[in-house]
Amino acid sequence: MIEPWHWLVLGFVLLIVEMFVPTFASLWFGAAAIIVAALSWLLPIPVSVQIIIWLVLSAIFLLAWFKFIKPLSVDRTKAGLGGSVIIGETGMIIVAPQPERAGTVRFSVPIVGAAEWMCRTRGEQVAVGDRVIVTDIVGNELIVSTMTSQAVINKNS
To answer: Where is this gene product found (predicted)?
Structure first.
């Protein structure tokens, strides 16, 4: 016969295993075992029902992890990828570029490890606060275009 403390020990063992194997798989099995331990202490549940509850809770926790929680932790910075991933990203001008000096564009999410990049335009006038789209990269500077002029270019293409 499985006692409630057996479930509790199993749950804590699985939680400890998670510390050494960071896959977030045994974490959910351990949490389900701890819940089954609490339920079996409160209610006289047959062993077969305890096992079914443990399996169902484990499946629910795993599904919730992969469907809802894990997508929130995806790294959207694109760090470590080539510079071409920046092309097409949109940001806001915080320092307007001048013919003699580069400006600065800020992205809402860090792109390739930085939220702010030096930028220039191809003769186009942009002001602080304008939304721009990255069209090219030259060295460490981004070539940007206003969203409205880019829409015209795309419409004519």
So the answer is: Membrane
Nearest to 94 by CA among 110, 106, 82: 106
- CA nearest neighbour of 133 among 152, 99, 157, 77: 152
State the Cα–Cα distance between residues 22 and 66, nearest whole angstrom: 15
For 95-122, the pLDDT digits (tens) are: 999 988 999 999 988 877 788 999 999 8
**Class of the domain covering 83-156:** mainly beta
- Give the tens place of pLDDT for each residue, 2-12: 899 999 999 99
**Residue ranges of the domains in the chain?**
4-73, 83-156
Name the residue with tokens 């063992």: 13
The answer to whether 11 and 33 are in contact (CB under 8 A) is: yes
- Return phi, psi of residue 2, to 5°: -90, 125
Cβ atoms of 105 and 132 closer than 8 Å: yes
SS (H, E, C) 6-25: HHHHHHHHHHHHHHHCCCCC
Q: Please identify which residue in the block is written with the tokens 């949109």.
A: 90
